[in-house]
Amino acid sequence: MTRLFGTDGVRGLANGLLDAQLALRLSQAAAVVLGHREVPDGTRPRAVVARDPRASGEFLSSAVEAGLASAGVDVYNAGVLPTPAAAYLVADLKADFGVMISASHNPAADNGIKFFARGGHKLPDEVEDAIEAELACEPVRPTGDGVGRVRRFADAEDRYIVHLLTTLPHRLDGLTVVLDCANGAASGCSPQVFKDAGANVIVIGAEPDGININEGVGSTHLEALQAAVVAHGADLGVAHDGDADRCLAVDHEGNVVDGDQIMAILGIALKQDGRLREDVLVATVMSNLGLKIALREAGITIRETAVGDRYVLEEMRANNYSLGGEQSGHVIFLDYATTGDGVLTGLQLAAQIAKTGKPLKELAAVMTRLPQVLINVKGVDKSRVKEDDGVRLAVAEAEVELGETGRVLLRPSGTEPVVRVMVEAADEETAQSIAQRLAAVVERRLSLALNDTESVRPA
């Protein structure tokens, strides 16, 4: 049976895989696993529920709240807020768990449900499995005064904004910032917090109508932000995704500053201030080799994890590291947040510009981003990518060719029959050539159209 939970909660087409009935039952199951099993008898568990502005979030949040209340959980409806705000509020309210309804950077037709445990932490696989197993059980059905109550969490956004402002190492007075809120969950709070921090703020992508989330705007579509930064002569641009757990940036010339560069800037700044614990930064295997080189030169060790901010967070929590993240812009400040926070990251980056008086382009130059080529090879048996002799030989030859000036990474997709071939090299032409060569080997060796005999022939 296919596991219901993916790498970041339950996600799919709203009213397709993810309908009101599933939302209701998931909530009832979570009420047992995260609520009743964790609180003293006779005490009603409490949960924070938030969502992004997708139209489907309206009926899904109603179903989630109904499921929780019917299972004896008191619900605090926080309305439209970023995912990291929901996580923060679970901890701030000392709630027993939280629910975020969002499909992040996905198109508006999709939606998702993710849960946070007490303290605002993402769930480990075994807890998600327990919730999934509970779906097969009869729901808890209290009556009378045992049913949960649903109330509006009226000051939820204000609490989050105040929290963000307390993290600022330097005010943003004098900076002009363009914010692209992806017509998503940060459309209200991100402009407000940047203004409160002293910045002159220009806003795009902050008119959500339920169906325009991530549509041509946000961290997956940076063209509008690049144009706006240049047109307004701004110091920088900050782009969020639909649920605002990530941040990408644009310098005053319109050049993209990705998550790796942001981590390099902030990691080095934290080390200089004595606030980078163990002088370690946590990143995934997909981070650019240029990040590792820049950190090494700054006396910072990089710890690598599998792809996914949950794995970055697990490594950080296990060793109490203070900073980590992904190239895609999920950056985690463990001193201030329990998950990636795009608004927090944008604030910290802008504060570093204001503090140093240096333009973002100069700060980003601390890291030289090596050319990186990624090819998705479809229709292959991804389970054999690490064991096929022909693929391993081709990778070994590529690694010898690249030497210390590049690297190769072959990674099976977690959701589809795809192998991701990533090559970094000193120049774009070499990266493209080697990536295409390896992709051809993977396609030839692992094609699902081949029988077993054909697939094990030498390359």
UniProtKB/TrEMBL annotation:
The reply on keyword Metal-binding is yes
The terms under GO molecular function for this entry are:
magnesium ion binding; phosphoglucosamine mutase activity; phosphomannomutase activity
For this protein, what reaction is catalysed?
alpha-D-glucosamine 1-phosphate = D-glucosamine 6-phosphate
Q: How is it modified after translation?
A: Activated by phosphorylation.
What EC number(s) is this enzyme filed under?
A: 5.4.2.10
Cofactor(s) needed = Mg(2+)
Residues modified as Phosphoserine are S104
**Which class of enzymes does this protein belong to?**
isomerase
**Boundaries of every Alpha-D-phosphohexomutase C-terminal domain copy:** 374-440
- What is the UniProt remark on how the cofactor binds and its stoichiometry? Binds 1 Mg(2+) ion per subunit.
| Any one of the GO CC terms | cytosol
Name the domain of life this protein comes from.
Bacteria
Specify the Alpha-D-phosphohexomutase alpha/beta/alpha domain's residue ranges: 3-135, 159-254, 258-368
- What keywords are annotated for this sequence in UniProt? Isomerase, Magnesium, Metal-binding, Phosphoprotein
| Active-site residue list | S104
Q: Which CDD domains match?
A: GlmM
Q: Which GO terms describe its biological process?
A: carbohydrate metabolic process; peptidoglycan biosynthetic process; UDP-N-acetylglucosamine biosynthetic process
Q: Which residues bind Mg(2+)?
A: S104, D241, D243, D245
What the entry lists under InterPro entries is as follows: A-D-PHexomutase_a/b/a-I, A-D-PHexomutase_a/b/a-I/II/III, A-D-PHexomutase_a/b/a-II, A-D-PHexomutase_a/b/a-III, A-D-PHexomutase_C, A-D-PHexomutase_C_sf, A-D-PHexomutase_CS, Alpha-D-phosphohexomutase_SF
The family line of this record is: Belongs to the phosphohexose mutase family.
- Stated role: Catalyzes the conversion of glucosamine-6-phosphate to glucosamine-1-phosphate.
What is the designated name of this protein? Answer: Phosphoglucosamine mutase
